[in-house]
Structure formats: structure tokens, C-alpha cells
Amino acid sequence: MRQATEAATADGTLKALKDAETGLRTPGPQIALLISATAILWAVFQLYQASPLPLRSGFMVLDDTQKRSVHLAFAIFIGFLTYPAFTRSPRDRVPLLDWLLALTAVFCTLYIVLFYQSVVSRTGGVRTGIEITVALVGLAMVLEITRRALGMPLVIVALVFIGYSFTGPHLPDLIAHRGASLNRFVDHMWLTTEGVFGLPLGVSNSLIFLFVLFGALLDKAGAGNYFIQLSFALLGHLRGGPAKAAVVSSGMTGVISGSAIANIVTTGTFTIPLMKRVGFSGEKAAAIETSASINGQIMPPIMGAAAFLMTEFVGISYFEVIKHAFLPAVLSYVALFYIVHLEAVKADMPLLRRAGQTAVARRLLNASASITVIIGLSLLGYGVVTAIKSAFGDWAMLVAGMLLLALYLVLMWVAARRADLELDDPDAPLIEVPAALPILLAGLYYFIPVAVLVWCLMIERLSPALSVSWAVVTITAVILTQKPLIVLIRHGTLTGAAFSAGIRDLATGMIQGARNMVGVALAMAAAGIVVGVVSLTGVGVAMSGIIDTLSAGNPFLMLVITAVMCIVLGMGLPTTANYIVVASIMAQPLVTLAAQNGLEIPLIAVHLFVFYFGLISGTTPPVAVDAFAAAAVARSSPMGTCVQSFKYSLRTAILPFVFVFNPAILLIGLQGVVHGVLVVAVALVAILAFSAGTQGHFLTRSRRWESALLIVVALSLLRPGFWLDRLAPQYAVIDPARIVEIAEAAESSAYLRMVAEGESFSGAQTRRIAVLPLGSNGASGEDRLWQSAGLAVLVEGRDVLIDNVNFNSPAQRGGLDFDWRIVELQVENDRFAKEWLYIPFLLTLGAIAVIQLRRRRDYAT
Q1: What is the pLDDT of residues 169-213, one digit of tens each?
Q2: Cβ atoms 397, 416 nearer than 8 A
Q3: Using CA atoms, how far apart are residues 664 and 670, in angstroms rounded to an integer?
Q4: I need a surface site. Which of 30, 71, 502, 638 has the fewest CB within 10 A?
């Protein structure tokens, strides 16, 4: 009886999670048709606005603010028609109240479009009563539909920040601010591009929609099922193969998904039963799927749409974001794959038989060979396209398109000669792994749209919007033609039914993509409230004070406190909203405090740091939504799944600390190709050693001291500078009275590092480490300090006082203030390269391996 009740509860939870992706209502055919038509119209509007047609035709030429308003209007209208207000609200019809709310919300959202000149002319001034009313009602509508679609966590966060904007003067000094009037609040939040219609919604409108649409069309074409089955066919014969296939397939689908939960309740319904059938417990199967799905959000090129937000927040190109984020994501996935292997070895799971494979085919289709083939084909494709561009000049794109079309026709002919891929039955007994070659050939053409996207992003360096537009065009052509071509190749005739099926698939994919975007757009709008309050109140300054007070200036404690705050702020939030909230609140305070304590952190490292820990909140109680979703699929204990997921996520949790102290992991500061290869190779070894240490199993079951030593070795390989600083101090101390002399003698573009003491704004005695630029040489020391660093000093014997600090200068941003005393100057010591410390730690790892090999041999005999 209890098992039946738990199964029913799990089924209900899973159904609720799936329904939450696109809404809970199933209204009558007329309303369903209206919702579908609106979704298609939204998709067409976004594609039209992303194309050059508006500028060429002069029709519907909208600026960014107007586009964002229309974008949100579509999301809100579909949202009110599909998401009921309460659990007891009717599901088979749309109540009159929801119609009224939908139309009211659309009017408030489109007010900026309808009365654009009037709204813009009063920006920053006194707003009319109508504008104030529209803004307040619009904000209420956004919060209400966010509550229905995404639940209360994001709404609570938004309400807390709204309350903070008005109660600032009455709060404790540490978090107080001057407050905001109602006029200033509505102007900032609704009638300009600082709040709801700010940067997050702008990225949703210009980029995220197109990528979500591409993912929905790719899945509708059948690529999702193909990637899952191909992963299982290639890896299922290994020990713990279904779990390894789950890691790979979740990675492939996760990179184009904007939601970890969406990935869990789609791929998880296939992968979790597979894992359970070969011996994984429900908790471990759900935890593996959770970890793999969360990792899909940190994997380039999409990163759950956060990559596009980072380009705006950090101010670097999309290609730079992808380059810096790539290695940590790969390390995390490799570690998860290894953890799965260790779990399978510890449980002595059986190997599954591979069906219908010759020895040659088996060798050709193992994982390493497949990777080699893919790399080889990629290099061949790069060479061919480069040659075409060189030979045909302006005609190169046409020639490349014709070759791509020819390749597509060949791959379609190959696919049509194979049987269609059937969906897996999760309840069927798992006896053997299907042959990989037929599955591989049955869907090779699915790689063409993905290849177009990656080529445009990474090789041609086109903008993300233009790149995904070409990918959408490609997958549209695939959807429209794949069924007619299969019928033609198999039966020698073309049928209207095949063409109609392609058109239906395209329409269904567009509807699915638009409905998937409802939650994302609403999350962006609600997160925009948080971003608006941050810019309105300066809460980042208050957050800096809180972290500084709690950490007492210790850089490591500062990072730990920031990580904990990111986990708390990210609980229950979708990926994109999660990143916006934690980045807007935590990123700049961390940069400021790090600079004030002498820790130089690249800005991209800070944003990746807060992004990673915001995502890890999906595995931490009490609101571990990702782990709970996987538990519903696996019918396992939610808290047990949560604990296991967090344990698996430790390998991801250490990476942000590592790349903050060792930016080489982000491919920053590499000194040539050899250094880059060394960093990547050692990082891979280190993350595997860390995974073995946390799992208590390396080459055999580890003793406690071996596990502890493995973790120490792993962390030391990831950050060798920690031990180098203990062996040879990084900085030597110099008499501060020589500051002018040293500044004058320093080379161009040099930095001056100093330690200063003085009273903070609150009156407390404070100590700061500042690293200040000195600009080009040739000027006097006083001029270089003032012109480049914004600092004027007064030397009185052995005492050096700060006589003046220029506004918004590096000195002021470093936390220095008038009348402070400079107590130390620090110059970098000449030390040996930290990479030499790899040797003793690698030898230690080798010694552990030898010990365990001997013990395993003794057990065997």
C-alpha cells in the first residue's frame, strides 16, 4: 500500500513538473487554437525582427524598448491563458477573470509602444497619474503570472527588493539607502529600460528566444531521441554504461536547453529507468541525471542562455565567454563520467551484451574512436570550407551551401535505408545494448544544424543572433524535407501526406518553442525588477559592507560567504533568472572587495563563480528543485537524492575557487601552446583524483588517509601557487617612503602594490591592499601616481600619508581615502615557476596508485 502511494505521489509530481514547462490547462479546441496561433505569431515576430527585413522593407521597424514590450506581451498573454491561478481553478476552460487579467496585462505591457513619444519625453521627470497606474498594475501582473508559471521563490525575491527600495532610510546603517519616491520607482521599473524592460528581457528578446526555438525545432525533428539512443548504443556496453550514456546525452541536450528541470523531465524519463535497470539505486540514478543536467547549463556554447547575459554584464565578446568557460565545464563533465564509472565498479555492475556487432565495428565505434572520427571530420570540414572561401571569394557562401545540401541529401539517403528509431520502453527488460552503427547512420543529418550553429559562432565569429538564425533556417529545412525525402527514397514517390506532416512538425515545433519561452521571458521580466532595484538603491555597496564585515578581509572567507549567498539567492530560480539575480547582487561587491584586499580576480572569473554557485542551489535543501524533479522521475527519496546530488556536485563546487586563484583554468594568462597543454592535462588529472578521493575509490577501495591525500593532491595540482607562496613569499616589503622614487622608476604599464590603513566611512580602523596602475613612464613619480592611479601622497620622514584621492579613480575604487597612511609597498619576488610543483604531487599520486595496485592484486589472489 505504501509503495503504491509513493508511486502515485511521484507520478503526480512528475506530471506537475512536465505540465509546468508549458502550462497546466487543456482548454477547448477554440482556445487551444488561439493559444497555438499566438505562439506561432510570436515565433514569426521574433524571426522577422531578427532578420534584415524590417530595415529593408520599412515595415514594423521597432527600437529595442518596443521589441521588449511586444516580447513580454506575447509571454504574458499566453501565460494567463495556460496557467491557472490556483490548484482548484478550472483546467478545461479559461475563466473570465483570466481573460480580463490577460488583456489588462497586455495593455500595460504595450503602453510603451502605443504611447511611445509621450513616455520617452518624460523620462526622468514627473509621471502622469495614468502612467503611474499603468506601471503599478503592470508590475502586479508580471508578479502574478510569474507566481503561476514559476512559483513563489522568484516572486518573493522580487517583492523583497521592491520593499527594500522604499524602506531604505529606515533600515540599519549597513544596508540603508536614501529610498525612492513612487514617481522615481515607476519611472525606473516600468517606463525605462532599467527595470522590467531592462537588460535581462532584452537578451531574452534578442537571443534566448531564438536559441530556445532552435532547441524545440531540433527536438521536434527527432534529434533529442537520436542523441539519447546514440549515447546508449556507444557507451551502454561499458560498466555502468546506461549512466555514462545519461551523462553524455544530458550534456548534448543540456547545451541547447534553457532549463535543468526541462532536461531532467525529458531525458531523465529515459535515462533514469535505464540506470535503475542495471543496478543503480533510485537516489544515485536521479543524482547522476541531476548533476548531468545542471552541467548542461555550464557547458558552452549556450550555458543555459547565461553566456549571452555574460557578454552584456562583463563587456567582452561572446567568443571570449565561450573560451573562458570551456575548460571548467569539460573538467566537470569528465569528473562526473569518472564518478559514474567508480560507482559501477564499487557495485560490480554487470556488462551488457552489444547486439549485432562484429569485432571490427566494435573497435571502430568505441568512445575514443568516435571522438577521433568527429575531430577528423571537423578538421576536414574546416579545411574544405577554408579552401572554398579562398577559391570562390564572394561566391563562397553559395558554393558551401550547395555542398551542404549535397551532404544532407547523401545523409538522408543513408538514413532512409535504416529503420526509424523507436522510443525506448522504460519498463522493458534491459538485456543488450543496440548496435551503434545503424543508430549512428539513422540520424547523422541531425548534426548538420548543430554544425552550422557551431561553425557560425566559433569559426566565422558571427553574432549569436545571426548564427542561431542560420541554424533555425537549417533545421526548418530539415523538418520540412526529411519525411518527404524518406518517403521518396523508400517508395519512389512523393505524397502530400509527407509534406503535410513536415508542415505540422514545423508548426508544432514553433508552438513548443514559443510556449517553452513563456517561463523564460517571465523569469527575465521578474529578474529585471531585482536588477532595477540594484541600480536604483546601490544595494551592491551594502552587500560589499556585509561581506567585508563577515570575512574580516580574508579573501578565502570572502569567497565562501559569497558562494553561500549565491546558493541562498539562487534557490528555486530558473537558470537565467538565477544568474541575473546572483550576478547583479554579488558580482561587483566581490570584485570590489577582492581588489581592496589585494586579490586580482578577472571579471569573467567572478561572473562564472557566482553563476556556478547559483546553479548548485538546485541540489541544496530546502529548495533543491532540480534534485526534487529527478527524484520524482526516479520515484526515490527527495532528500536522499538531494544529498547524493550535492555530493556529486562537489567536483563542480571546487572549480570556482580554483579558477579565482588560478585563472589559467579559464585559459587566461597562458604562455604559449605547451603551457596551455600542460595546464589542461594536469587539470584533468587533478579533477579525476579529486573525484576518486570524494568517492573513496581509486584503483581499489581507498583507505581514509588515501582519500584525504588524493583530495590534497588534486587541490594542489589545481592551485600550485598556494604551496609556492609558502615556500617563497610572492612579495617583498619595501619602505613606503620610497613610493615616489619607485613610481618614477617603474616600467610602462606597471602596477604599484601597497598596504594602507585608516578610518572607514563608519569610523572603524581598516586595512586595505591596493594595486594601482602607473601608466606610461617618462613622467615624474608624483605625476604617474596622480594621473594614472588618482593618488596624491605626502611623505613626512618615514610616514607616508594619502593627501588626496581623485573621484572614481583606481585609488578610490581600491578603497583608499584621504588621510590614510601607507604602511607598506610590496614588489614581486623573483621565484621559480609554480608549474615545477606539479612534479612532487604527480609522484605522490603515482605512489598511491602503486599502493592500491598491489593491494588489489593481493585481494585477487
Answers
A1: 888 877 888 888 899 999 999 988 888 998 888 888 888 888 889
A2: no
A3: 6
A4: 30
Render the burial of 50-88: b for 16+ CB within 10 Å, e for the rest. beeeeeeeeeeeeeebbbbbbbbbbbbbbbbbbbbbeee
C-alpha cell at 485: 525525402
Cell numbers for 729: 613569499
Q: Point out the least confidently predicted range of 60-69, 121-130, 378-387.
A: 378-387
Q: By the 8 A CB rule, do 544 and 593 touch?
A: yes
The answer to whether residue 633 scores a pLDDT higher than 90 is no
- 800 close to 793: Cβ distance less than 8 angstroms: yes
Q: What is the pLDDT of residue 363?
A: 47
Helices 496-537, 539-551: axis angle to 10 degrees equals: 70
Cell of 135: 506601471
Question: With contact defined as beta carbons under 8 Å apart, do 283 and 637 qualify?
Answer: yes
Of 523, 539, 622, nearest to 154 by C-alpha is 523
Q: What is the pLDDT of the chain when averaged over all its residues?
A: 84
The β-bridge relationship of strands 731-734 and 821-828 is: antiparallel
Identity of residue 352: L
Q: Is pLDDT at 423 greater than 70 in this prediction?
A: no
- CB-based contacts of 442: which residues, under 8 Å, 6+ apart? 226, 415, 418, 419, 420, 421
User: For strand 765-773 and strand 731-734, is the pairing parallel, antiparallel, or unpaired?
Assistant: unpaired
Q: How far apart are CA 155 and CA 404, in angstroms?
A: 47
CA distances (Å), 360 to each of 274, 364, 369, 370, in order? 27, 6, 12, 13
Q: Rounded distance, CA 858 to CA 546, Å?
A: 56
Q: Which is nearest to 514 in space by CA: 50, 75, 94, 204?
A: 75
Nearest-CA neighbor of 319 among 165, 452, 464? 464
- Residue 51 backbone phi and psi in degrees, to 5: -90, 170
Q: Is the peptide bond before 736 cis (omega within 30 degrees of 0)?
A: no
CB atoms within 10 A of CB 683: 24
Cis amide prior to 622 (ω within 30 degrees):
yes
What pLDDT is stored for residue 50 in this prediction? Answer: 87
Q: Residue 59 has which C-alpha cell?
A: 515595415
pLDDT tens, position by position, 334-388: 999 999 999 988 888 877 766 654 444 454 445 455 556 556 666 676 677 777 7
pLDDT tens track for 276-308: 887 888 899 999 988 888 888 888 776 767 777
What does the pLDDT read at residue 559? Answer: 87
Name beta bridge partners: 732.
827
pTM reported for the whole predicted model = 0.80
Radius of gyration of the chain (CA): 29
Cell 504611447 belongs to residue: 115
Residue with cell 553574432: 463
Length of the chain: 861
What gap in Å lies between CA 584 and CA 561, rounded to an integer?
16
Q: What ranges in 538-649 are assigned the alpha helix state H?
A: 539-551, 555-570, 575-582, 588-596, 603-616, 625-634, 638-648
Contact 680, 326 (CB under 8 A): no
159 vs 588, residue with greater confidence: 159
**Cβ neighbours of residue 832 closer than 8 Å, sequence gap 6 or more:** 724, 728
Distance of CA 428 to the CA centre of its chain: 35
Q: What whole-number distance in Å separates Cα of residue 140 and Cα of residue 144? A: 6
* Mean pLDDT (whole number) for 226-243: 82
**CB 279 within 8 Å of CB 641:** no
Does residue 508 carry a pLDDT above 90?
A: yes
For residue 826, the cross-strand partners are: 733, 753
Q: Of 116-125, 191-200, 611-620, 680-689, which one has max mean pLDDT? A: 680-689
Q: CA-CA distances (angstroms) from residue 375 to 231, 372, 381, 390? A: 17, 5, 10, 22
461-490 residues labelled b (16+ CB within 10 A) or e (exposed): ebebbbbbbbbbebbbbbbbbbbbbbbbee
